[in-house]
Design brief:
The chain has 7 helices and 6 strands. Strand 2 (33-38), helix 2 and strand 3 form a beta-alpha-beta unit. The chain has helices at residues 16-29, 53-64, 85-95, 117-123, 139-142, 157-165, 176-185; strands at residues 3-9, 33-38, 70-72, 100-106, 125-129, 145-148. It has a single domain (3-185), classed as Rossmann fold, CATH 3.40.50.620. Helix 3 (85-95) packs parallel to helix 4. The protein is globular and about 45 Å long. The longest helix has 14 residues, at 16-29. The chain has a 6-stranded parallel β-sheet with strand order 3-2-1-4-5-6, sandwiched between helices. It is an alpha/beta fold.
């Protein structure tokens, strides 16, 4: 049976913490493939300075292009409205009826509202990475999830955006190809390109 990891998020931008989580999950859970899925519109927040989906998708493609088990998907960018994981899981279940699906989320996401959480758990194994400084979720939400032990590195997309806006370095926080693209296109700078 093919084992597929589903890794969604705004990826605004994708960074090495995301990639480390994915690689740790791939190795620990013997996943055959991990699908990185940028959200069109995250339901739990209205992020500031959110780059257009097509640009975030390009950055994800750059970040994963050298890993044979990592792929980028624009499945949520093609769907109008808010990006709910349950809709994505159902679509992937239809495409891959015999695959074992693993939804990869950070510990901080356990404390946000989820649409159809129980149905999502029926479709996927929910895999949670512990994150530095995350609040503990309710006991009910923590039931039937698989915890993933991984190196604790505190990298956030918001910090990366702040560094870029201030003219600082993001080397060793994002893949080199992503850093180059952000610099060359002036992304996350005031008045920078977003297309």
């Amino acid at each position: 049976m093919v084992r597929i990891g589903i890794f969604g998020g705004t990826f605004n931008p994708i960074h090495l913490g995301h990639l480390l989580f994915a690689e740790t999950a791939r190795e620990s859970l013997a996943l055959d493939r991990i699908v990185f899925i940028p959200a069109r519109q995250p339901p739990h927040k209205a992020p500031k300075h959110l780059l257009p989906g097509a640009v975030r998708f390009e950055l994800v493609q750059l970040a994963v292009r050298d890993h044979p088990a990592f792929v980028a998907s624009d499945i949520e960018l093609q769907r109008p409205g808010k990006s709910y994981s349950i809709d994505t899981a159902k679509a992937l279940r239809q495409q891959l009826p015999k695959a074992a699906l693993f939804l990869l989320i950070g510990q901080d996401m356990l404390s946000v509202p989820w649409l159809a959480w129980k149905e999502l758990q029926r479709l996927c194994t929910v895999v949670v990475a512990r994150r530095p400084g995350s609040r503990k979720a309710s006991g009910a939400r923590q039931a039937r999830v698989k915890w993933l032990d991984m190196p604790q590195i505190d990298i956030s997309s918001s910090d990366i955006r702040r560094r870029v806006a201030a003219g600082g370095s993001i080397r060793y926080l994002v893949p080199a190809a992503v850093a180059r693209e952000i610099q060359q296109r002036g992304l996350y700078r005031k008045g920078g390109s977003s297309s």
